[in-house]
Design a protein that fits this description.
single chain; 246 residues; alpha+beta; 5-stranded mixed β-sheet; two-stranded antiparallel ribbon; 5 helices; 18% strand; globular
Length: 246
């Protein structure tokens, strides 16, 4: 009787998990199609304008707008690939060098818009071997750092910064990404990890998937993600993930 009860419990959990996955996939496909078609419509409109225009300065303006749209579309497709990969791929347990992963992620963000205006500070304290999934950790760090750069605010009284602190030991790793950017309204803090949620009017260039992917990645790694934020003061994202060496 106990075995049957346990099997029923496991089946219930499995069914609920599958229902959640199906609902998220339905929502994901619908919203993805909508968010891809928008930039494509913009591109087609700009191409038609270029075809009809003889003024070279206006043509350059239209081409610049086309470039921005393509970059936005490319970023969105990149997020779709990350989400899909995280959903399907098993956790790859391998020895992790946090400094190496962080350096590579920061290098990839060197030429992103606004990046040159944001001071990056890093602190990595890795005590002993840490085992986790390198690719997922890179996706996590990339999305958190990208957010800090995108929503940075800089002026002569308040230079923009993002500080990344990583500390690990034989049991867990703690990652903090701290910035002094736009911050998040308190009313939105419990929604920011939802699929396609955008808390800022400046988020229209983003996919609305970044923090959702972070949460999904952290859950795959058996960890937790937390946020503290104040509007116009900045945000701190903290992640705790277990060492999978055991």
């Amino acid at each position: 009787a106990l075995e049957i009860a346990e099997l029923k419990k496991q089946n219930k959990i499995l069914i609920e998990s599958l229902q959640k996955t199906n609902h998220e996939l339905d929502q994901f496909v619908y919203r993805s199609a909508h968010d891809i078609r928008g930039p494509i419509a913009n591109l087609l409109g700009l191409i038609n304008l270029v075809k009809m225009e003889n003024d070279i300065s206006l043509i350059r303006t239209y081409v610049g707008l086309q470039e921005q749209t393509v970059k936005r579309l490319d970023s969105f497709i990149h997020d779709i690939v990350n989400y899909s990969g995280n959903l399907r791929r098993v956790v790859n347990k391998e020895s992790v060098d946090f400094k190496e992963i962080l350096d590579k992620v920061l290098e990839e963000h060197y030429y992103t818009p606004k990046s040159e205006q944001v001071m990056k500070e890093t602190s990595v304290k890795q005590h002993g071997e840490f085992v986790s999934d390198k690719e997922r950790l890179a996706i996590l760090l990339s999305n958190l750092i990208s957010n800090s750069i995108r929503y940075s605010v800089t002026n002569r009284f308040n230079p923009a910064f993002v500080r990344i602190e990583i500390e690990s030991d034989e049991s867990k790793a703690t990652i903090r990404v701290i910035d002094n950017g736009e911050g998040i309204d308190e009313e939105f803090l419990d929604k920011i990890f939802e699929m396609f949620f955008r808390a800022s009017p400046n988020a229209r260039d983003g996919s609305g998937l970044g923090l959702f992917i972070c949460k999904e990645v952290v859950e795959k790694l058996g960890g937790e993600i937390f946020v503290e934020s104040q509007k116009d003061k900045g945000s701190t994202f903290m992640v705790e993930i277990p060492n999978l060496m055991m």
